[in-house]
Amino acid sequence: MLRAVAVLLALFLTACSSDAPSGAATSAAPVSGVAPQELPEGFGSTAADGDFPRDVVHFAGTTTIPAQPQRVVVISTGQLDGVLSLGVTPVGATQASGADLVPAYLADAFPDADLTSISSVGLRLEPDLEAVAALQPDLVLVNTVGAESIGSALAGIAPTVVTEGTGVNWQQDLLLVAAALGRTDQAQDLLQGLLDDAAQVGAGFDGGTVSVVRVSGDRTRIWGTGSFVGSILAAGDVARPADQQFTETSRDLSDEELQRAAGDRLFYGVQAGAEDATALASPLWTGLPAVADGTAVRVDDEAWFLNAGPAAARVVLDQLAG
After folding, report:
1. Are residues 225 and 118 part of one domain?
2. Where's it mainly located (predicted)?
């Protein structure tokens, strides 16, 4: 398996560039649980915003983008949010299984964008390469997990830039998308505004702990510091319960472990269709202090747990503040 992945990445590097800089494919962001707010050294582009052609160093090498992208296709989590937040409506996108092509929170965030013009190119984990090619893109965005299986094929269709992926890396990945689009200044301003707002929202918790939980079917999970939501809480210096200070994205809870979801404040998401999950009716859930006193807040499941990007971060901050 590892050898197969190595071969695929090697093919992708060749398709992206014949002179990829040494170490470009193996440089890594900070360890999981620490949300990188800048690109790894040497990544991105040295070209000024708006200047093309440009070379973009990313997580699978170097890609030359000959002109300002006009027909962008996004494959992986967070990338639709990212390009829309930078003022670009892609021609194609994948979608999460069982979810809409354009999440409701993005439709609300970008009412003036022509979101109906975006074509589906399959599921995030199973993109339709023929559909991608039919759109004649001039830029494709994918993360490292997707690049392992279809990176070389995508690079054969159009210039392809690989972001790291996973929610905790959303700020770094937005900057890499911006480097490909020639909109780095805009991305930096956007991120700084969100970080400033996170600090203001965090101050409102006055040292109280915040618990984050998601209920989906027969699974109940607490969210750690190594997650999209965890990174936003960390940016606001919001304290987490001791059981939620782990650096993975999330951990499963059995019904008997629901007390680990306790915190001074509790924010929870429920997957569509899981409203009747047994966990929500358990006396251990209804007995949690925040649930019992009516202060637990149900949040936007798509923005908090299924996506990552500036618009999702804004939803999280607004619901934390509210």
Report:
1. no
2. other
